[in-house]
Amino acid sequence: MFQCVFSSSVLQPHSTSCLFKHLFYHSATPASQKQPEPIYSKKTEIQRQTVRAHSVKLFIFSALQVARQLLLQQQQQQQVSGLKSPKRNDKQPALQVPVSVAMMTPQVITPQQMQQILQQQVLSPQQLQVLLQQQQALMLQQQQLQEFYKKQQEQLQLQLLQQQHAGKQPKEQQQVATQQLAFQQQLLQMQQLQQQHLLSLQRQGLLTIQPGQPALPLQPLAQGMIPAELQQLWKEVTSAHTAEETTGNNHSSLDLTTTCVSSSAPSKTSLIMNPHASTNGQLSVHTPKRESLSHEEHSHSHPLYGHGVCKWPGCEAVCEDFQSFLKHLNSEHALDDRSTAQCRVQMQVVQQLELQLAKDKERLQAMMTHLHVKSTEPKAAPQPLNLVSSVTLSKSASEASPQSLPHTPTTPTAPITPVTQGPSVITTTSMHTVGPIRRRYSDKYNVPISSDIAQNQEFYKNAEVRPPFTYASLIRQAILESPEKQLTLNEIYNWFTRMFAYFRRNAATWKNAVRHNLSLHKCFVRVENVKGAVWTVDEVEFQKRRPQKISGNPSLIKNMQSSHAYCTPLNAALQASMAENSIPLYTTASMGNPTLGNLASAIREELNGAMEHTNSNESDSSPGRSPMQAVHPVHVKEEPLDPEEAEGPLSLVTTANHSPDFDHDRDYEDEPVNEDME
DNA sequence: TCGCCAATAAACATCT
DNA sequence: TAGATGTTTATTGGCG
C-alpha cells in the first residue's frame, strides 16, 4: 500500500499504477481544490496594500462627493440668498488675490501623503478595475468642480474689473467674496474631516506614516494637489502598477523621487523605498526636482523604456532619448480607455504568469515527491533510481545485496544540479524502464561533480539515487576530498556509502567496480605508505584525458547543441502548459502583447545562459582546473607498467555529454594531447 | 550497423 | 583459510 504524499490526500493507492493515476489526478486538479495555495508573503502584502489603497481611494472619492455637495449647497445658497450679502467691507484675501482653482479644489491630501499611501500598493485586476471606474467618476467630478470654480473665478474677476472701472455693484462683489470665504470654510471642514479619516486609517493600520513625515494628515490647502496633478498621480499610480508588474518579481516600489508632485509641498522627507525602481516618469515634465535627475538614470531603470524603444505592451515605438520617451508616454499612453484596458490586460498577464509559476512549482514538487515515492516502492521499483538514465542493476547484482540497508524513509530534497540541468535528471525511459536493463551513465551535461555533490549532498545521502557520475569520477572526488588527497580502498568504500545512499546496497557490485576502476585507470595511483596501500590521483594523467576544448571537440559541440535543443521542447512545454492553464494569457498574447514571447525568449536566454554558464563553470571548476588539484603531487605508479598494460583504459571525469569519462589510455596514447583545454 | 566506452561480472592472484 | 585487495578479461548495453 502506498500513501499519497499530498498533505491533503488520504487516498492510499494499492499499486503503482493506481498511485500514478492518483498522482495524475493530483496534477490535473486545480491547486485550490487540493491544497491551499502557497502563501507568498508578497501576495499577502499585495492584498493588504490593495485594501489600503482601496480604502484611501474610496475616501478620496467620497470626500470629493462631499465637496461637490457642499459646493452645490453653496451655489444654491448663493442663488437663494440673492442680495442678502454680508455687510463686510473689509477686503477679503480672496479678493486681493484671485482664488486659484487649486485653492478651491478639495484635494487636501498632499502629494506626499498620496504617494506614501500609494507607494506600496499592488492591485489585483479586479480591484484595479473598480478603482479605474472610480477614478473615471472622480475625474468627471473633478472636471465639473474645476469648471465650476473657473466660472466662479471668472465671475469674480469680472466683478472686480467692473468694480474697479465703474465702482459699481459692491453688493455682488461682497457676495462673491463671502461666497469664496464660505468655500474656504467648507473646504476647511472637509480638510478636518479628511484629517479625521486619515487618523482613523492610521489607527487601523491601513495607513503608515513615515516617522519623519511632518504633519501628514493635514496640509494647508495651498499644498493640495490641483486636479491635474491628482490626475497625473492617478495615471502614475496605475502606470506604475503596470510597470511594476511588467518587470516581474523585482518587487520594485514606486520611486517617489519621480513622483513628488507639488514643489510647494514640504517634501523634506525622503520617501524613496527603492532607488532602483521608477515610475513612468509622467510627472517629470512639471517637476524641477525630477528634472534634476539624470535621464540616463531614468532610461536605465524605467521598465517601460529600453534600448530606445517604448516597452509599453504592443507599442514598441522608437524613442531616441528618454525625453522623447516621456513625451511619447504622456501623449500615446495617457490615461484613457485604451491604456487602462492595456493595463488590465497586462495585469492579467502577470497574474496568469504568477498562477502558472505556482502551478509549475507545485507540479515540480509533486514530481519530486512522486519520484521519491517510486524509488522507495519495494515492489515496482526495487532498484534504486538512477537520475541519469535509470540504471537498474543486473539481476545478480540486485539479488546480491548482503549489505542492503532499509530504504531511507526521509524525503530528500531534489538534487539541485540535475534539476537545473534539465535533461540530466530524468529521461522518459526512467519512468518506464523495467527489468535489469543496464544503461550507461556518465558525467553528462558537464555537471561539476564537486559542486553537484556539495549542492545535493543531503539528497544523495538520503535518496537511493545514483549519482550521475562515473565510478572514476566519484573515486577521484573521494580522494580529493580527503585531507591528504589519498585514501585506502576501504576509505573509498566508506566515502561511497557515506555520501550516497545508493551505494549502501549491492556492495559487491559497486565495490568490484571501484576496484576495477582503480586498476583500470592510470590516473589512479597506488602508493604504499605506513598505513598500507593508499590511492591517489595523478592529475597529469587525469588532465591528459580531458579533451574538452569546445572549439575542437565534436562531442562537446554536440553537447552544446543538445543543450540548446533542450530549450525548444521546454518552450513548447511552457507554452502548452500556459495554454492549458491560461486562456486569457493566450488572448493577451494574441492581442499583440509580447509578454509571452518575451517570457519564452527570456527563459530561452536564461537556459542558454545557464548552459553556457554550466559549461564555463564546469571548465572553471573542472578537476583539471582546480588549484587544489593542480598542486597535487603527481604520484608514480610503483609497479612499472608493462607497455601493453599501460594502454589500459582511462576515463575522463568531466567530459561532455556522451563523451567518455575516462578514455582508455589506448585511445590517447597516440593522440596529441590538447593542452589548451586544461 | 558499427565502434566506442562505461558498467558489470567474474576469474584469478596476492596479501593480511 | 577466509576475506580483502588488486588485476585482468569478457560481456552488456547506451550512444554517436
UniProtKB/TrEMBL annotation:
It comes from the Eukaryota. Its main location: nucleus. Residues 273-300, 392-424, 612-678 are annotated as: Disordered. Coiled coil: none annotated. It is found in: Nucleus. Residues 466-539 form the Fork-head domain. PANTHER family: FORKHEAD BOX P, ISOFORM C, FORKHEAD BOX PROTEIN P1. This is Forkhead box protein P1 isoform X3. It comes from Equus przewalskii (Przewalski's horse). The lineage of its organism: Eukaryota, Metazoa, Chordata, Craniata, Vertebrata.
